[in-house]
Amino acid sequence: MTSPDLTRANIDKIADLFPNVVTESSDADGNPVRAVDFDLLRQELSDHIVEGPQERYRLDWPGKRAAASTANAPIAKTLRPVREESVDFDTTKNLFIEGDNLDALKLLQESYLGKVKLIYIDPPYNTGNDFVYNDDFAETTDEYLTRSGQRDGTGVRLTANPESNGRFHSDWLSMMYPRLKLARNLLRDDGAIMMSIDDHEVANLRALCDEVFGSANFEASFVWQRKQSPQRDATNVSATHDHILVYSRRRPEDRKDASGWLARLLPMGEEQLNRYDNPDNDPRGAWTSSDCTINKTAKERPNLYYPVRNPHTGEDVFPSQNRTWIFDRNSMARLIAEDRLWWGAKGTNFPRLKAFLAENQQGVKPQTLLLRTVVGDNTAATREVNALFPEGNVFDTPKPTSLIKHLIYVGNTQHDDIVLDFFAGSATTAEAVLQLNAEDGQERRFIMVQLPEEYGGSSQSGVWSGVAVGRRVGVGVGVEVFR
Asked: How far is 459 from 122, CA to CA, in rounded Å?
């Protein structure tokens, strides 16, 4: 019986445009509420760096304002077509861009704004190696320590831990921030971004994406088993996994909401199919059963705590005080009438809900654990690249095509959806798109972006050129090349 809260509605509208400017505050009674960080909003609407000393809940680092300004700053550049290195230039829908991906992302804004279904990136893991994408944020350790308050004007260190190399975190965040902001603009409302990362920066990347995409749009953190054996040179505990963070452009309300991103269900394997049986000879076929209760107390959900009569014994059955039924009374009565409750072979067990195989052919939800036996590992990836380049080990950190293909499938891409990778590396994403198209007959398209570097047949430490794209996708596939 109250009028709409227009302030909250306006904050929601601003959050949709600029998720990073919405923060936490307190109302007059001390209750937490959402609020707009007007300093950050001014920065989004300004063409120069805006200063602001206000304390707030957010991820911060030296150089953040400059990075935000860089994302919004226009550039006087264009893409130059390279027809002699392209295949079917005038008819293909696949695109390969050689150049700095920050510039490329800005140039893609005009033609691909809100059109990309899935973005997969494998950015630098920031393990201590030099950056390729420094965006002029790189500085000496002395400069960083002075600017960040770790050293005073006389050169005295204000903090211990001289070997921490903390500036790398700020440089890395400043490199990623504008790219993620621009990438968000390219996503469709039902699109998502997936990012490979290891333990060095996973916490920072998660916090950064919470700001750029909105914490409510966090979807999953896949754990990929990238190797089987422990590292002999591990300092203490050997890390055998990487993370793959997933954020949606917009989270749907439910699986029927096509306006937001939904993961694609996976086909049921032999293990899932073996769970179905038909012990009561139900004419609807094989079924499996599941719990009818949820982890809510009778006090929390009084409408879901009621007796259910066992049709075999005539007794009323209640869940425990610490659990309630999943369904309300009307829904439960319908399930009983449809004989969808299983009371055990003797009819005296606690009821379970029947789920019929014929009604569940659409598949199973993907899980966050990605085992090497299913999606491949580093060894398989290296073997793939070496098969393409018999002249030697030319790429240090490839991902297996099977892993990226799995992610593209789970990303719910189909038809002529666009898949973007602006840290293209050895073009694994391009090959994964083509392999998946060949398997299911879809016509997905890819856009690859990678810094050019002269190919010399030796390890490039994560830097690549169009040579990998040509060898991976082959001359039979159309690709427009731009620089």
From this structure: 17
